[in-house]
Amino acid sequence: MAKGIEIRNAHFPGRAPIDAYGNGGFRFADMSHRGSLLCLPSGIYGWDMTLEDALTPAHFQKVLDEAAGIEVLLVGTGMELRPLPSELRAALRAKQISSDSMNTGAAVRTFNIMLAESRAVAAALIAV
Hints:
- Pfam families: DUF498 (PF04430).
- It contains 3 helices and 9 strands, in the order E-E-E-E-E-E-H-E-H-E-H-E.
- By secondary structure, it is α+β, with helices and mostly antiparallel strands.
- It starts with 10 loop residues before the first strand and ends with a strand.
């Protein structure tokens, strides 16, 4: 019996620099992804986050769950800088993760540099 197309959660099992961003998505590792991304030590994941969503600890649970491998979290907040709410900063600090919010383009560039330096960096990138 033939199965139809299987839709799976977006996940790239490795670390890779972001080659391009814009038009609502990203390109990395010879692939493209429409929507936002979490770039974590365990891989790159599709992230159900939009420009309109609040930056809450619940949206960053996957980051908090992988805290052991993360020293710095870069948060790309879209075209404009959005400060991280104190509740989110406190949740990250409790897991000993330093956080920095910036526009998505700056976050992509900074992530790529830190990744090339083999730093314990993660990125939460809202698509623009």
